[in-house]
Design brief:
The protein is 12% helix and 0% strand. It is mostly loops and 68 residues long. The longest helix has 4 residues.
């Protein structure tokens, strides 16, 4: 039976480890410009106003015209 505790945690030949090689500390340091995080938000552009729509036809009879 497989005993999970018998495996060494220093087994670097496992596929679970990613080998990136030795890198100097300068390459490991990441500099971030935090001003982008604290910059004021710009307002989203407003869409153009919607033109008024003509009244919908209800399907009823047309109003009768009165003789002059």
């Amino acid at each position: 039976m497989f005993d999970e505790t018998s495996r060494s945690h220093t087994d670097d030949d496992s596929t679970r480890h990613i080998h990136r090689g030795h890198r100097p500390p300068e390459e490991k340091t990441v500099e971030v410009d935090s001003s982008a995080f604290f910059a004021p938000e710009t307002a989203a552009p407003t869409p153009p106003p919607v033109p008024p729509k003509p009244p919908k036809h209800t399907g009823g009879p047309a109003p009768e015209s009165k003789p002059p």
